[in-house]
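Table 4 source record.
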Amino acid sequence: MRLCHQHKVSVVVRGAGTGLSGGALPVEDGVLLSLAKFNQILDVDVANTQATVQPGVRNLAISQEEAQHNLYYAPDPSSQIACTIGGNVAENSGGVHCLKYGLTVNNVLQVKIITAEGDLLVIGGETLDSPGYDLLALMNGSEGMLGVIVEVTVKLLPCPERAQVILAAFDEVGLAGEAVGAIISAGIIPAGLEMMDKLAIQAAEDFAHAGYPRDAAAILLFELDGSNAEVSEQVMRVREVLKHSGATEVRTAKDEAVPTLHRCAELGAMHVHHGQLAYPELERF
């Protein structure tokens, strides 16, 4: 980095190259710096629920490694099976669970970077709060413009006791959108939430045969997680809100034997629509 800086040579840092902003594209007469081989999990602090990893570690690999401790890493971009944690920090990646658990910036404690001048900086800390300016938030989403990320310390969360998925179908896309607002206004923050319009429903059905209602204009997929008692209460409240929000059908997954919106580390599952869901009898309003 020092040599490139002295000779004014551009450096583009690349992880897995899954980002959509074009940040990993090389430039003419520049250096493409790949961090793919920096793929080690350096330390796991189970007591303090955090892990220190190199930037080339895949997002999903963190949860797969920590499953033995009943822990996981919450941010889950749709490319989590391939994308790397260094790129996640650079892009401030989110995922289907960001509504409840936040983006990458909300789940990173510390990063080590090499500046354009070749200096090693440690930003943030392994404690709840660090003194000085919040430069850690500045690094998240900086798209590689402020330094080369060489180490990341992330927060880990305990795996919830239970995760339950609810599917709701609507005759209008607008009604589905309003139902989302009604759920959140009722004080319920879903662990995961996705909306699909008619074209998406039909495409998913043709590919995955998940059992979605093809005649619906839109469907919502809610995931609720937490303790068994908490989820049971929230399922009943969500169904009641959906009933008054114009839902034509509501289905609840029978069990967690199949992938839900929640990460299943051992299965390497992505989202509910990548697997087959079993539903009890349809309830109509």
